[in-house]
Design a protein that fits this description.
The strands form three sheets. A seven-stranded parallel beta sheet has the order 1-4-5-6-7-8-9, sandwiched between helices. It has a five-stranded parallel beta sheet with strand order 11-10-12-13-14, with helices on both faces. It has a two-stranded antiparallel sheet with strand order 2-3. The protein is an alpha/beta fold and 590 residues long. α19 links the parallel β10 and β11 (497-500). The longest helix has 22 residues, at 168-189. It is globular, with a radius of gyration of 25 Å. Helix content is 45%, strand content 11%. The chain is built from 24 helices and 14 strands. The protein folds into three domains: 9-75 and 135-149 and 188-347, TIM Barrel, CATH 3.20.20.210; 379-465, Methyltransferase, Methionine Synthase (B12-binding Domains), Chain A, domain 1 (Orthogonal Bundle), CATH 1.10.1240; 467-590, Cobalamin-binding domain (Rossmann fold, 3-Layer(aba) Sandwich). The structure holds cobalamin. The site of cobalamin has 47 residues, from β3, α19, β12, β13 and α24.
């Protein structure tokens, strides 16, 4: 639909202040290169090209980043290139995956030695260009260089999660260093008259909730946000926070930091209606058009209907911008991206008076968090004490408790089956209900492994009865394994034999290992929709190998849903790691 772009950053700021502008603005902060070029029908190389895209597509702004960590790309040595994966634009692309284990700064010594850049090392010339070359009415938005994400990427996710609980000195040093570099860059960039707002993409959560305990965020991260928020408010700049996952627990903190808006309202993690009711008068909501399914696997009509429905329900009164639930990735078909933009222009004019169901299509509705909770467990052993000790990060407390019960005549196998295993299930419940976070889960799993190991010698019948054989891996082209590893911890902790096939596992490898291990369950994990589709290829490979009827197939991961699991013919789906253990118990009743 040809239309004359009329950028007006005042429209953006009015929505940001939760008031009604002339129409609902577009709000996406990042569009991958391939959809951009396909939309413009030409290569996008120069800043002129970039401005041309954002202008022609109908945005009131152009976004651009400056700081230590460019969005979705990390300094040398901190990412791994994965196998090329599917895009909707013909050619496959190999993505850069963050170090989820060991990063480049894992000790104070490495921290001291690391050649930390300063703001003077960054090329900020593009802001001079924007000052002189933006079309009338358009402004630039500074994409801040991430602080939380940069800290864990420098350390490696696992080292970072551990250091939060065990190495305060290193954690404090790295947050101070990165915070300072990003803050000084921020101060330089906002001096430019073309800058109208500052956008902070820093993922602090996942589907279940925050990645780490909020006390760490309040200590190391939010003070930097507050400093920037105060400056933005003084200078009349917009200040937008972006985090994937469920951030409900800290929405008030984010408002206190000075943020005007929240993005992207990940549909599998947050209920936009609930957020609008609770914080809609203080926070402009930007996003929620579903990247997991509607934008990627849906039709342009589905996208049109979902945009219509979000504008109809969230738009009235202002404080809403249409955008994807993360970014426009290269696995979003061009027609779906165009449908999002066109529907925003068609239905977004204020006052909004749209009838329910006015546009037909498959519209995503928040499904809640399908939690499979462990059943209550009767035991004459002190489960609470075992649970507390598993979270103590002191294995001697767990082995001490176990030994006390053994010395009082309890069989070792019973200490495991009636003490440790139910205790780990309680740890899982605390994770599902947001009482503990990923670092604590990792600690509990380590304590469990350490204790089981120490009890092995005393086990009468060494061949401890296992609940079943599971092979698990992250699918082809996907290098994300934190999620898979938490599932492994819970399955092993609940008594399953688990073979970890690692990351980027091809359908052929799943088939081969299922055969060799006489597996009862084939478990697959994925981080992105563009890799998640490999799950169906694996199920078809199992069918072709006539193995399908001999195994149960379960799937999970951030973009995965029960509907997707049903559509590809999987036997089960679980929203989180404790749920995965419950699911396996249901599929293989002992
Ligand atoms: C950290 C993160 C990043 C990091 C690191 C990613 C990496 N490793 O390279 C960075 C910043 C680099 C990044 C980049 C991108 N990201 Co990102 N990212 C995340 C984030 C915030 C957390 C992922 C994580 O570690 N979660 C923690 C673990 C513990 O959770 P989990 O993996 O979901 O696992 C749990 C459950 O799912 C379940 N589970 C997991 N596996 C299994 C298996 C089975 C069998 C079962 C039963 C259960 C199960 O149990 C686990 C524990 O409870 C997610 C948001 C989210 N909600 O998770 C987005 C998210 C994955 N990212 C997303 C996107 C779009 C991107 C980008 C494509 C953006 C872009 N335009 O480039 C890039 C792609 C990067 C790449 N590698 O190609 C989207 C994917 C959406 C989609 N449908 O495809 C997400 C979901 C955010 C969103 N708002 O939608 N990302």
């Amino acid at each position: 639909m040809a239309r004359e772009p009329k950028p007006d950053f005042e429209r953006y700021m009015t929505a940001l202040h939760c008031e009604e502008p002339d129409r609902v603005p577009l709000g996406d902060w990042h569009v991958d290169q391939l959809p951009k070029e396909s939309f413009m029908g030409k290569k996008i190389v120069t800043f002129e090209d970039q401005v041309d895209f954002w202008y022609t597509a109908g945005f009131d702004f152009i976004t651009s980043s400056s700081g230590i960590l460019e969005p979705v790309r990390a300094p040398e040595g901190m990412t791994t290139k994965g196998d090329a994966v599917h895009t909707e634009y013909g050619d496959k692309v190999s993505r850069e995956w963050a170090q989820e284990h060991e990063g480049v700064v894992t000790s104070l010594e490495q921290f001291e030695k690391y050649p930390w850049p300063s703001v003077d090392d960054f090329d900020l010339s593009k802001w001079d260009f924007f000052d002189k070359n933006l079309p009338k009415g358009m402004k630039a938005i500074h994409l801040l260089g991430k602080i939380y994400t940069t800290a864990w990427m420098f350390m490696g996710a696992e080292v970072f999660f551990n250091a939060l609980e065990t190495d305060e000195e290193l954690t404090a040093a790295i947050f101070e260093k990165i915070g300072k570099i990003q803050y000084e860059t921020f101060l330089r960039v906002i001096e430019h008259p073309s800058v109208g707002a500052v956008f902070n993409p820093d993922d602090i959560a996942h589907n279940t909730g925050l990645l780490v305990h909020p006390r760490h965020l309040r200590k190391y991260l939010f003070p930097w946000y507050k400093k920037m928020g105060d400056v933005c408010r003084d200078k009349g700049l917009g200040f937008i926070f972006h985090s994937d996952g469920d951030c409900t627990e800290v929405m008030d903190d984010l408002i206190d930091c000075g943020f005007h808006a929240f993005n992207p309202l990940q549909p599998n993690a947050m209920d936009i209606d609930e957020i609008k009711n609770k914080w809609g008068n203080k926070l402009c909501l930007i996003g929620n058009i579903n990247l997991d399914s509607t934008l990627t696997l849906g039709t342009p009509q589905d996208v049109r209907a979902e945009v219509y429905e979000r504008i109809r329900t969230i738009g009235p009164g202002g404080g809403y911008m249409v955008a994807s639930s993360n970014s426009i990735t290269d696995y979003v078909p061009l027609d779906n991206m165009k449908a999002l933009i066109d529907a925003t222009f068609e239905f977004g004019r204020y006052p909004i008076e749209l009838a329910e169901g006015g546009v037909k299509g498959t519209v995503w509705k928040y499904q809640g968090k399908a939690k499979k909770e462990a059943a209550e467990f009767e035991s004459q052993l002190d489960i609470e004490a075992y649970t507390t000790s598993l979270l103590s990060n002191d294995v001697s407390r767990v082995t001490g408790l176990a030994q006390k019960d053994i010395d009082s005549g309890v069989e070792v196998a019973e200490v495991i089956s009636k003490g440790l295993i139910p205790a780990l299930a309680e740890v899982g419940k605390k994770f599902q209900t947001g009482k503990i976070y990923i670092p604590e889960m990792m600690i509990a799993a380590r304590m469990m492994q350490g204790t089981i190991e120490s009890l092995k010698d005393q086990l009468a019948d060494k061949t401890e009865k296992k609940l079943g054989n599971v092979i698990i891996g992250t699918v082809k082209g996907d290098l994300h394994d934190i999620g898979k590893n938490l599932v492994i911890m819970m399955l092993e902790g609940q008594g399953f034999t688990v073979k970890d096939l690692g990351v980027s596992v091809s359908p052929e490898q799943f088939v081969q290992h299922a055969k060799e291990n006489k597996s009862d369950i084939v478990a697959m994990s994925a981080l992105l929709t563009t890799t998640m589709i490999e799950m169906e290829n694996t199920i078809n490979a199992l069918k072709n190998a006539e193995l399908r009827d001999q195994v149960k197939v379960i799937v999970g991961g951030a973009p995965v849903t029960q509907k997707f699991a049903n559509d590809i013919g999987a036997d089960g789906y679980a929203y989180d790691a404790p749920g995965a253990a419950q699911l396996c118990k249901q599929l293989l009743p002992s």
